[in-house]
Amino acid sequence: MILSVGLASALTTGLANASNMVIVRLAASYGDIPVAAYGIVKRIDQFPLGISMGLCQGFMPLVGYNYAAKNHKRMRQVSVFSWKTAMAIAAGFVVCFLGLAPWILHAFIQETETSTLGASFLRIACLAVPLTSVNALIIYTLQAMGKGLQSSILSLCRQGALNIPFLFLMNWLVGLYGMIWVQLIIEAIMLPIVLSMYGHTWKGLEKGGNVGS
User: What pLDDT does residue 190 have?
Assistant: First the structure.
């Protein structure tokens, strides 16, 4: 059980690192400046995602406890509240990043070309943050419920089966900026799949007659 549940987290972390290595390797063919710009943007982009991971750490025990107690209605309330909170926080960061991208990048690096390119990258990359946050939280909800297989499959699809091939494809089709759009594309593809997986799991609980009050 521990291995099946922990596998989703291991896959997410390992494949996310692999995706970052791929994009840095591909960006290197365009010169040092794109690599530097992407590296800075990735650090900035991790800030709102880090908040989402904090939400995960807070709500996963609540999901697990209520699931074990068969109080599934409360479990769902906790989950949906966390998703909405993550979406609201992420939306605030998107507005901030879209409006203040040049100043944010300039605070990290004063070199004009890198700062300008990084601002363009940030305005694209930040669009994926709300979807990334919600997808991750739903996957972690399934993980907290002990649905290791479902969460592992979703993690594998997000970070491996789709992300890495799309990086090569978009680099080939569009070039440097195409790779920056990949995260948004993947998260948009995954959102209905993740919601469908969760919905199917919830219907199974309802059919079991243990939703709770």
Answer: 94
